[in-house]
């Protein structure tokens, strides 16, 4: 699997993680390919600093030595990094901008969900901004920018669901139904029974990440282009479904 490299030096490696690839081993399947094992044959030993959900695509930084790992860990722990995500959400948000602070904790169910818990949850804050709206009738979508101030598991997904705008194709917190061209394009002439979805995985992409370089202290920003399925879905929404 070819993983796009956004930046590489002797200290850090920044890549555009494909959707469907776990950052670290997923469950008990130790033979399954994950990000680190996919990269290490070409780039050497890597240390994980932060994670993206398996179905989330986008920018992720890895350390190439222990000193860089320590520095980056400190930056993330002290919230001295900036993260920007783009989410394609189901529905039409009743707000243009919204910041939500809702404590989160991991649930103990078999699906490994995260839940809002005002008593036992850890602080979590995310700022949202609607960038574009799509749809007609009962079928609506929106492109939303998310800037998480904290980095809890599934934070963006849970907060968007709580605001009534779950991420599209989110099995855990929204609807698992894929986005189809037949629901977007008027007078669709294809075979609905054999139609391939435009997007059949979580509509969440880590767009930008800003960090201080562990060695030089330079402020650096990295941006990961949309993957093909995410970009193609947006193009079709803009063409046929723009509000």
Keywords:
single chain; 243 residues; alpha+beta; Pseudouridine synthase; two-stranded antiparallel sheet; 4 helices
Number of strands: 12
User: Residue share in helices?
Assistant: 10-25%
Q: Quick one: CATH class?
A: Alpha Beta
Query: So, CATH architecture?
Result: 2-Layer Sandwich
**Average pLDDT taken over every residue:** 93
* Overall outline: globular
Give the end-to-end Cα distance, rounded to a whole number of Å. Answer: 38 Å
- Strand fraction: 25-35%
Write a brief structural summary.
17% of the residues lie in helices and 31% in strands.
Structure description:
This protein is of the alpha+beta class and 243 residues long. It has one domain: Pseudouridine synthase (2-Layer Sandwich). Helices cover 17% and strands 31% of the residues. The chain has four helices and twelve strands. The chain has helices spanning 35-43, 66-77, 155-162, 228-240; strands spanning 5-8, 12-17, 47-48, 57-63, 82-90, 97-101, 104-106, 114-116, 125-136, 139-148, 204-212, 219-223. Strands 1, 2, 3, 4, 5, 6, 9, 10, 11 and 12 form a ten-stranded mixed β-sheet that branches. A two-stranded antiparallel ribbon has the order 7-8. The chain is globular. It starts with a strand and ends with a helix. The mean pLDDT is 93.
